[in-house]
Amino acid sequence: MEVAAAIRTRTAMPSCSSIYNPINFSKSISISRLSRSQSSSSRYFHLFSSSVSSFLNLHSNLNKQTNASKFIVRNSTASSISSSGNNESKISAKPSSELRKRKPNNKEIDDDKLIALRQLFSKPGIGIDAYIIPSQDAHQSEFIAECFSRRAYISGFTGSAGTAVVTRDKAALWTDGRYFLQAEKQLSPSWILMRAGNYGVPTTTEWLNDVLDPGCRVGIDPFLFSSNEAEEIKEEISKHNHELVPLYDINLVDQIWKESRPKPPMEPIRVHEIRYAGVHVSSKLLNLRSDLIEAGCSAIVVTMLDEIAWLLNLRGNDIPHSPVMYAYLIVEIDGAKLFVDNSKVTPDMLAHLKSSGVELRPYDSILSEIESLANQGRQLWMDTSRVNAAIVSTYRFGKNRASADIGYKGKVKAGGHDKSDGDAGRPAGLCKVSPITLAKAVKNYAELQGMRNSHLRDAAALTQFWSWLEKEIHKGVVLTEVEVSDKLLEFRAKQDGFLDTSFDTISGSGANGAIIHYKPEPESCDVVDAKKLFLLDSGGQYIDGTTDITRTVHFGEPTSRQKECFTRVLQGHIAVDQAVFPENTPGFVLDALARSALWKVGLDYRHGTGHGVGAALNVHEGPQSISFRFGNMTPLQKGMIVSNEPGYYEDHSFGIRIENLLVVKEINTPNHFGGIGYLGFENITFVPIQAKLVDLSLMSAAEVDWLNDYHSQVWKKVSPLVEGAASTWLWDNTQPLVKP
């Protein structure tokens, strides 16, 4: 499942491998907020890198200044797929609010939740004119516990990515191209849908500056925004004399959610066995402390849940689809403290942590510990693109107080060199990406073996599932998208080591397949139609690995257009799979390979081509990706895992996606230009690609050979794991194709 790198991309901040000076909020932190920490959720969602934003802003400015002609975009739904690719539909780009179907008088209709929220704006101690409600939790998680789904609760939009902004008389929601159709269906007339990335659509801060009178106050929950994000919001809205107001002691959505809000998760934490983890906690901590010493830091604050789980070889069950637990971690040169709810601690976990010198602290005591370290003048490493603004500001205030008490003029670390800071009393601290991020992304031998093994068991489950589904459809059995999804879960659950799905299964028949992150619901889903394309994107969490696979099939006779679209997607998939590239190549360099066959006929897709995948961890992880967003300069490295999932979608008609997972490996090339090595990919996903959807006349001989070789491997690796009807189905669907 492609998150569009997204899912998590943000407006790029200036490089900060130097010292951070966090946002100076006008209000000091109230320590009474400490008890609120587990109800912290969501973060500000930035949808595109600064390069893309700059491009759109440039066109917007040119249009305003020169009365330029309308921006022309290609309408993939209407355009011909002929080889010439010359036919295109010229449309005038309009703001999202104009595109939405509304009642004739176009009047905003306030729902009860918005009314209740706005009533809080004028309460004593609040006094705001707008409130920003992001998607993720206080740990910047993609998937979150239900009790933290504040944006979904207030707006009704359940997609994983988006930002809601509510003023005294307007409400708007921003999301990206993966969710446009879903948002159209789920938002009430009270909301304006902002199709982020479309021409003419403002960012959240641009919109606020436009709709608010100068001098207004914009509220946020500082636990739900990274320090960088809060800083950026403050800077942008200050251009119109607006003030950013962090509300430390209260989350306004929680106030109206009240008793109906789900309880926080309290699932026990388990130890991730060394046979799956591959490296002992003590060794990981030793490497991390070496990084701290080299950086001149006393400690590092870790808030990303998958980083904590990976570093300590722990797994949890607090969040659907992700085997992590809500916790914070501070690693010092001579010790470590894990901040977690004591009810989740098991005897095995306690003994495991004690052997590695890790102490336990209450989850909601993180701010007091940060303040204590600041008062001691400790130099902290914090990834301010991820650590929330409440934590960073606590450190700042504490450091300032300590400096004032002792008349301190500190030295700070910048670019690896000491230098005196001209602003006396400013806090010292290292602003840099967490070293755990890259260490986790490069899998060790045990992790790779676990991923390979879990993918074979997953392939067996999918083989059984597709055999069953095809038989049922041909018998004329009526099955809904949800029933199909549930049946797949049954097959997966029978496999050894299965724990959970790795995300909500995308089971989309016909037009629903065009909704990139479609989630079928029992009360509204469609029947799987044998005469339409069916897209199934699913994955599993196993004790030893994480899977993510997409297949698109047709149970009847596909049209020539569907076959051509599918074949061009397949050609892009093959091009990425076969890519060979020099070391230090960032993923965006490969993205064009996946799109080239589509581009030749003027088609494209609105998501990235590949995301990182965790080993028995999050199905989406960084820092690596394969995406058109060229702001991510992280090079692909041996041992990383990425998805390969090009697609094509025609709104209200059909969707196509083909996805496998790939391991980056060394390639033995006959030459080594520049004295460097070359890399390529190892495929670890083994499920047939439907042959009837392939137009062999478009395929080269080499591409047909790839498909035949792939199916040969599928049969060889998976056939020993299935029997009966599933084995017959696998045999039938792995037969070689002959190009006419």
Task: Give the tags.
740 residues, alpha+beta, six-stranded mixed beta sheet, 21 helices, disordered N terminus, manganese, metal-binding
Provide the fold topology:
Layout: H1 50-66, H2 96-99, H3 112-120, E1 130-133, H4 150-155, E2 163-167, E3 171-175, H5 180-186, E4 192-195, H6 204-211, E5 217-220, H7 227-237, E6 243-246, H8 252-257, E7 270-271, H9 274-277, H10 281-295, E8 299-302, H11 305-312, E9 314-315, E10 328-332, E11 335-339, H12 347-354, E12 358-361, H13 366-375, E13 380-382, H14 389-406, E14 411-414, E15 417-420, E16 429-431, H15 435-441, H16 445-474, H17 481-493, E17 498-501, E18 506-509, E19 533-538, E20 540-542, E21 545-546, E22 549-554, H18 560-577, E23 581-582, H19 588-599, E24 610-612, E25 621-626, E26 641-644, E27 647-650, E28 654-657, E29 660-667, E30 678-683, H20 701-718, H21 724-732
Parallel strand pairs: 1-5, 3-4, 5-6, 8-13, 11-12, 13-16
Antiparallel strand pairs: 1-2, 2-3, 7-9, 8-10, 10-11, 14-15, 17-20, 18-19, 19-22, 20-21, 23-30, 24-25, 26-29, 27-28, 29-30
Helix pairs in contact: 7-14, 13-14, 16-17, 16-21, 18-19
Write up what this structure looks like.
The structure is a single chain. The chain is α+β, with helices and mostly antiparallel strands. 32% of the residues lie in helices and 17% in strands. It is built from 21 helices and 30 strands. The chain has a six-stranded mixed β-sheet, with helices on both faces. It has a six-stranded mixed β-sheet with strand order 12-11-10-8-13-16, with helices on both faces. A hairpin with a 2-residue loop joins strand 20 and strand 21 (545-546). Helix 7 (227-237) crosses helix 14 and helix 18 packs antiparallel against helix 19 (588-599). The radius of gyration is 26 Å and the shape is globular. Residues 127-247 form the Creatinase N-terminal domain. This is Metallopeptidase M24 family protein.
